Amino acid sequence: MGGTHKDMSITEIGGTTVTLELIAKWLKYIRNISLSWIHGSELTAPTGSLVSKVVGSGKKGYVYGVIITASEANKFYLNWTSGGAAMKISFQLSARGTLLYVFEIPLNEGYSADAGTAISISVATAGSPGSTYQAGFLYGEI
Hints:
By secondary structure, the protein is mainly beta. It is built from two helices and eleven strands. Helices cover 11% and strands 48% of the residues. A hairpin with a 2-residue loop joins strand 7 (74-82) and strand 8 (85-93). The chain has two domains: 1-31, no CATH class; 33-141, Jelly Rolls, CATH 2.60.120.1380. The longest helix has 10 residues, at 20-29. Strands 3, 4, 6, 9 and 11 form a five-stranded antiparallel beta sheet that branches.
């Protein structure tokens, strides 16, 4: 087996350089995408949005995970717009604590967020006085 690891890791197919990193992304996420956490600040007695991110121009936005922390029970929504239609997924925190979901397939698979629109996590009911909340989501766009 001649050659080095570097020799075996790069190939060009139809003008695209295929590396082991690209192959790993395709195997894990089903697309060539880089992910990063979008974190919101800690908020006291919040109403509405806890964190948001606008999808880049000419891009599609995908959410691969969420983290939500609250000092009380509440319901939360992951909100986005796909094909011009408002979309949402709800998460219930039945007591104070943290919920964390991370997936290899995006939560909004098949309904990517439209370019120029916001993806957000919002609280269903305003937080009680003195309550603290924080949220974030694992985001990528292509």
